[in-house]
Amino acid sequence: MKPVLKVYGHIYPVSEDFFAGLSRVCAQALPNDACALARDGDMALIAFEGVYFPVDDMLEALARHLGPEHKGRLDVLDMENWRLTRHAIDEGQVRARSAPLNNVLEYSR
Q: pLDDT 10s digit of each residue in the chain, 109 long?
């Protein structure tokens, strides 16, 4: 079965507590090893391909720890509906924008 969703992102700087909160979201909502959540220094990296990803839960976990020093993004590629939603993280806020994947591909040529 082809993945319906592809989710990639990063956020920094993350503390141990912040990373633990993100880990809990993955562990509670997804089967083992479905969500690749890793740390690289003070950066959390998220990679997922599959049918279901708890985007709202992940955004809530981010919001609980978010401060003005945090930067990053969470990109959700909906392969079924051919849309990209980018959750940009900057200055303590998450801003979402969505566009058809055709627009994104055209722009990135």
A: 677 899 999 999 999 999 999 998 888 766 665 668 899 999 999 998 888 888 999 999 999 999 999 999 999 999 999 999 999 999 999 999 999 988 765 555 5
Distance CA 4, CA 89 (A): 24
- Amino acid at site 17: D
Does domain 5-107 fall into CATH 3.30.70.1270?
Answer: yes
Angle at CA of residue 99, ends 7 and 24, nearest 5°: 25
Q: Cα torsion for 21, 23, 27, 33, to the nearest 10°?
A: 170
Entry pTM: 0.86
